[in-house]
Amino acid sequence: MWILASSYAVTAVFGLEAAAKIVALGFAFGPGAYLSTNWHRFDFTLVVLSVIFAPMGGTQVITVRLLRAFHSFRVFARYRNGRLVMKTVARALPLLGDVVLFLLWFLIVFAVSGVTLFGGKMTGRYCRYCSYLDYWAPSGLTKGPINLIY
Fold it and tell me: How many other C-beta atoms can be found within 10 angstroms of the C-beta atom of residue 47?
């Protein structure tokens, strides 16, 4: 419940920020208008999508919440070293695809090996109606099932 309330609060804060900037800068026309920069277009799109999808709920709202995380990249864009870090990460992302593919290959190989080696070996290890002593004690020493669940 608090996640929904915080989502509405963040949407309201972003909406008020967009409204204040639209009043101060103008909406679309002029050299310094609100929609003249890409970051403001992104913010405006997020606010509009949040207002549209908030009553619906579901995965659309989660997607808009995830897009809000990109809002923090604006800080990196303002500084030279931040831009350098963003460019470096952008260059490294295609190379990480090969690493992920390599790790997935090993995951698949070990999953198939595990199923092949251990498939069916653990059946019969859990018996609700058998006694623990039936497995370890010689026959005839127990009078009835103890019904241990482990």
Answer: 21
